[in-house]
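User: Here's a chain of 77 residues. Predict its fold as tokens.
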Amino acid sequence: MLTKIDEQLQAYDARVGSSLQMISCDPQGRISVEDLEKAIAVIRHKPEEEVGHKVIEKLDVDKDGFVELEHVLGLVR
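Assistant: Prediction complete.
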């Protein structure tokens, strides 16, 4: 039984770990809108596509294609 649980945890870690690699910050602490869209697409309780686009649009205030990571984290909290 413990072996089965361990295997399931390893599979989960592999899946989640690779999902987390799709977002990376630049030196200014920003993430690209493209990376954020990819991340939103894989979360379990994702918003409807239109809602996701609106949220990203509001987060990218200066329309430069980047979002401050702190703003995303604040939204998640």
